[in-house]
Amino acid sequence: MESTSSLPGYIREKIAELDLELSEGDITQKGYEKKRAKLLQPFLKKNEAISVDKAKTTPPPPYYNVKDANNSNSHGNINNDGVVVSSEGYSYVTEVPSLSSSQQRHSKKLDFHQSSSVTASSTAQSGAAGTPGYENMRPQGGAVGDPGYQNTREPSGFQNQSTSNNSQHRQRRTQRKVTHNEKRYHSEVRQEAVQQALAALKGRPKPSLPMPSKRTSVLNRSPGCNDELDSSTDDESIPEETISPDKEYNYPRDHISNSMIPPEPIIKPPIRESSMSSQQHLRLDVKQSQTPNQKYSSSNSVAEKRPPQNLPPLPTSDTSSMESPPIAYKRDTDFSDKAFKQKQFNAPDITQFNNTHRIADRVTRYVNVSQSELNDTDANGKWKVSAKIQQLLNTLKRPKRRPLPEFYEDNDIELEIAANTKDPNAPKPEGSTMTSVQGEQLSIPAGLPRTLECALQRYGTNSFKSSMATVLDPNGKITTTLTYGKLLSRAQKIAYALSTKIFSKGPEQVTLKPGDRVALVYPNNDPLSFITAWYGCMFRGLVPLPIELPLSSSDTPPQQVGFLLSSCGITVALTSEACLKGLPKSTTTGEIAKLKGWPRLQWFVTEHLPKPPKEFNVGNLRVDDTASSYIEYTTDKEGSVMGVTVTRAAMINHCRALTMACHYTEGETIVCVLDFKREVGLWHAVLTSVLNGMHVIFIPYALMKLRPSSWMQLITKHRASCCLVKSRDLHWGLLATKDHKDISLSSLRMLLVADGANPWSLSSCDQFLNVFQAKGLRSDAICPCASSSEVFTVSLRRPGRGSCGFSQSATGRGVLSMAALSHGVVRVDSEDSLTSLTLQDCGQVMPAAQMVVVRSEGAPVLCKTDQVGEICVTSGSTSASYFGLDGMTNSTFKVQPILEDFDQTKEGPGTGTGTVGIISKPIGDEYYVRSGLLGFLGPGGLVFVCGSRDGLMTVTGRKHNADDIIATVLAVEPMRFIYRGRIAVFSIKVLRDERVCVIAEQRPDCSEEESFQWMSRVLQAVDSIHQVGIYCLALVPPNHLPKTPLGGIHLCEARRRFLEGSLHPANVLMCPHTCVTNLPKPRELHQDTGVGPASVMVGNLVQGNRLAEAHGRDVGLSSEDCERKPQLITGVLRWRANTSPDHIIFTLLNSKGAIAKTLTCSELHKRAEKIAALLQERGRIEPGDHVALIFPPGLDLLCAFYGCLYLGAIPITIRPPHPQNLNTTLPTVRMIVDVSKSGIVLSIQPIIKLLKSREAATSIDPKTWPPILDIDDNPKRKYAGIATVSFDSSAYLDFSVSTCGRLSGVNISHRSLSSLCASLKLACELYPSRHVALCLDPYCGLGFVMWTLIGVYSGHHSILIAPYEVEANPSLWLSTLSQHRVRDTFCSYGVIELCTKALSNSIPSLKQRNIDLRCVRTCVVVAEERPRVQLTQQFCKLFQALGLNTRCVSTSFGCRVNPAICVQGASSAESAQVYVDMRALRNNRVALVERGAPNSLCVIESGKLLPGVKVIIANPDTKGHCGDSHLGEIWVQAPHNANGYFTIYGDETDYNDHFNAKLVTGATAEIYARTGYLGFLRRTECSQAASLLDETTPSVASRDSDTESLNSISQLQLNFSNTSLGGNSEHSIVSGAVNSNDQELHDAVYVVGAVDEVISLRGMNYHPIDIENSVMRCHKKIAECAVFTWTNLLVVVVELDGNESEALDLVPLVTNTVLEDHQLIVGVVVVVDPGVVPINSRGEKQRMHLRDGFLADQLDPIYVAYNM
After folding, report:
1. How confident is the model at residue 181 (pLDDT cuts 50, 70, 90)?
2. Is the C-alpha dihedral spanning 1142, 1144, 1148, 1152 positive or negative?
3. Alpha helix positions (H), 1384-1539
4. At what angle do helices 9-23 and 29-40 cross, to 10 degrees?
5. Which of 194, 285, 801, 1263 is the most exposed place for a label (fewest CB within 10 A)?
6. pTM
7. What is the strand order of the sheet 641-647 is part of?
8. What's the confidence (pLDDT) of residue 1104?
9. What is the DSSP string of 402-460?
10. What CA–CA distance (Å, rounded) separates 45 from 798?
11. Measured between alpha carbons, how far is 297 from 1210 in angstroms, rounded to an integer?
């Protein structure tokens, strides 16, 4: 090993400088190695073999470093000189151990640390148990790191060493420099604990964590982008046995999939290439036998770079073996075989669409490849993703550490109890109840001034030339010194100016009076102006509130500070001229901009003020001692800013106590590195220093960043006796080794460590003492103190301890068990324990103070001596209150500790008072103040602090300190991953328990894969040492965590950004599967219990539950109707052409709203005859033949349809292919043509050209189409006559695709068609004088019926708007309604959504165009799904401004077996809505709850049952009749049911009984059709009947032209008198209108979701839409979302409408939301571009289609996260 100690001094210094540059990230590793090699070149004579290239000499750290057996006892004989274990259970040292014993202790520990060559040679390992402290700038614990210094700790293996090596270690230790091996947060104990924990896990099957997939562009932006890894050669993709699954996504996907082409640019074309090259298809077919985890791996050369010992074993429980592909792969192949056996072309994307960019985009992503590659791609594409998921499943199969507790009810109290389990084996406190500890008597030195004002006047006049404060500039030069004389005169000027200046407060003019509050806004580099302003306020009796400077937008949003300013009533802010210039200005006026959340402030510059007149005397002002002297801001765990009020008496008492405890005397020099605006810096450097007439030298933060040793140089130069630092500064000072030689600290009698209460400050103190004892530092000069804004100084180790009596001579050190601490109990641990925490004391209680420790939760009961609690202090020198917050003030500042009574059997909740008559007594009358610090008292009054209340995380009933977890995380090879040691740890509440989140800044040169490996090791280390799981581990780019003004991590802000999704991490690993242990128990489905459907039915009857059954009213055609109108639709059309030939029946509008074409009855009849003749003549079509109609929405489609009917042919309407997306849409068209057995295709010229185009030929060979006819061709002769067909023959075939991607065609007979039209005519009151606007797709279901059939049947005027025209002009539909005074309109959810989104800002302009929607009576949304409540409510609310009646919007319900089951009638009551319990729905129960109840779901009724329809609810499995309170399948019986499936594409066995289902109980003979939708019935009142008619139906007078409508009402009355009253809506409304004396009930049908889409997880049924709605709400950038399951894993796909860098923000939020709302753990989160989730023409998501795209790896996701 090459030791740098033999090198010349100047070389050593240069190497140290290089090390520092590397550690700060100012130089790359490559540059570092180059420069270092250059420096060392001349000195490497003999050791040519040893390379200086650090990366190569250091063997890559194995996962687990096993401790050598020879050294296993080395901890046991560590010298414990002077350590006594007291009966209370901690050890303390009766004196400061001498250096030798301390050295001995460290060197023993070093015996088994052998570092790599660089580390050993250039660094000193002189840490103690515990790690150096770190920046703790914010009130809460849990974030560390500071911008200036990189933690460069190398991992140390425990390897064998010789004895001589040990002695060398001892000799060399003092010579080494602590530079490169920066031991900032490490202790050997923690380092070793982590290494051993990881080693212990080696035996366990290692979780084979699938690495998240990232799109290349995201990789390129993330810090770990490695250029060498960005492309791979062809042979690199050959799978290899040795490659770990963790390495799976080592190469970006896009480059692998197109391995022969250069990397794609970031902007990708909309249509993707085939996902793999053909060589890879071949290879994957050959290599099927290999495990799915190795889907592509590196070649030998790459494998050599990463030696095999780095890789975890392959998962043992993998389903695949060497002989066969994995099960998942087989299954998918079977599926594709089945799918393709009918035809050779690809399974089409069934998502058909109109000419819309959105819908087109949604489908472009699933690109079909050419036929030759087809089977390969699909199968192995699926194989790729399923391999990942298989890996995840294998990981999850491993037994969890803690079994899930058993539950039988999914209920909140149970979840709460499970989250706070009580461990019966937890250690209990055994000590006696503590007594309060008293500080020494406060003795005030004789000459000490009475107040601060007196002090300033005394020193300002008597010793006006002596320096008060000196400040250095960023270059380390002394810029200005403020003498006491100058301070006094400037403070008087400010006091005078403030007493005379008139400020305008609104309209009135006011001056500041004593007691008014003002803000002090000064930068951190200007303490002099701050001090003068402070004392100016004191002289005037004003109350200063120092706040941070809101400099730039990158600073933490100072909104919370603004709230504090407002609540304190502050209108004036004091500042300096330079600072005023730097404040954000308004761009328009140039004045100071008003900051968000801040009150309007008047800025007052405290420089260049006039001299006060002679008669002005600041001493005249008498201010009461109880008055407020100043307010200090503090922050709580949630980030709320509060003002702590301090009285004058408390301020001066605290200064006196500090004077006595620190032995301050006049004229001493103090060096201050702390923030002088608050806490320790303010108390010592601004207040106590003036009281004692001392000189303070301030070092700005900017200088500390540049020259970390500047404070030590100042002590040397000025012979300073005191210094105020944080442990971070000690650590930085240790690093700057090149400055050490000139330093002398012999003048220093007190080195006050302000964050001594931080458990990890111990190491900094120890190391600092070890290094600088040689420079004159006395061991009794290091004084850790504990403080808080509420109590001020809690305790302080006295300087020069030997001289002041027994009580202050002790210092203590305790090695405590972390496991016991997590239960709040103090237990001594052996020094070699891996889970111990070594604490140093924070000194004794302050003079004149009394201290107790009380329980941190619940009542303030005194703790036992061996119990950890919150430290409380009473003295004359604590804060008085939180300004304006009385409740919080009482709970914090007015605490009366109570004794626990042993007669109590148990505690009352939250009170601490007993339930057995005896009341606990307070220990005295004094009020104590809670300090927010958690700790315990040692012997001799020593105070030990082991955490803070804000940094405490209570996870599953155990308490963990954020700082302890940080230390463990940093011990896992921090140098290679963590940028400058910057880590934030906090907890978030999810599912009623706290979950630990760790956010770290990752180094810029860290690769994806390395960081992922590191993350998995961190999880193991924390789990092993703390027995707590990390819920979320995120890495952010360097300098990305929000900072405090002095460079620390702003924890509250980091937590807030994490929760709102604006942190933008570069890597995220969520582990909900391991952390969430309080999930409700899965529901067990009991089989063979003997409870059959009959028993259920009897049970319902016995309980008085109504069986779920509902009827629409009778159709009841009048005799007049029967005589006048033939029943066949063709006959109706001919009759209308004869009786009213010129009646315009259809009008088609273009995108501008102008009339494109009209069609009268006779024109339609004539064109239909012409087309029938054409089909007969050219197409040789006979009655009964099938004709495919491929038309855009328009009038040609209508004519072609009736032409087919005239001929007796059976038409099939098909949406035309999308010209921009032929690859995906054309196969669907072709498949419908083939499956429907169409003999001929009828279309228009543009579409025929498209079908035969060259672009189309890539998907479908134009020669393979059936004959194609152009509708515009002219036949030679006229058509003879309309074919006569029977009522029961097929009229047309209705083909459509379910949301599950299943294509099915149903047969609609002429009888069904006529019944449907009659039923709709009656319900919707459709007559020739009506105008109905349709904005629907005319290809299937009710949309087709409304567009083509009902207009001819009823004779009303249909205004047709193609939905794609609304895309071009969003206001088209609404302006049409207004212009034509339309009363009834039918549309789709797509149109409603488009109008809501596109017109949300256009309401004023629509009003100007006089668009008025008051005419609309019914607006029916045609759908086959649960009504979208939120969307319709948004739509109604938005267009209410244009007169839209919110009650008129309703949703219809139809399905495959019956296109229209429920439709809101023209005079129906408003749709009823109910709130049901979502948790009951999961168990197929319907429980009604109040609006706003937890877990409530609003469901709205789907229109009213059509006349002639009967509906029941049946159990889809047992076919038993359900009661009202059950969720079941909706079965329907109606004359217009479809007549059976023509075909189902795919598996037909499940569908045999869809049209002839029978109940097994009750009326077993009746035949129903099964809708495939789950729902329930509820009997509701038509309470709105009369009022609704009043509002929406015109009076009879206004309807005199509408004679048919009047007739219809009287007709309905007749019908009602004849028919049985089946409690239904229309009847009740009419009776309400006619005699309105009795209110009827009607049965509302509520649709919940499709049976096929139900997700069954944990034994319960979930509806995707509910989970999706939760996810949509969780982040504003989520544009769309879809969920599906894959092998019991819930997969959530979210579309990100934002920058790709925001993709990872969504992962934690999605996981949290689904866990909180549905108690489900998300397995995979996929973030994709907008438009990827496929949506069909009806606006429904095609989830199964998306699933296939995901498994075939066709989504091109931005990010895929696999939750652990």
Report:
1. very low
2. positive
3. 1389-1398, 1403-1408, 1429-1439, 1478-1482
4. 180
5. 1263
6. 0.77
7. 628-635, 641-647, 881-882
8. 67
9. SPPPP-SS--HHHHHHHHTPPPTTS----SPBP--EEPPP----TT--SSHHHHHHHHH
10. 54
11. 56
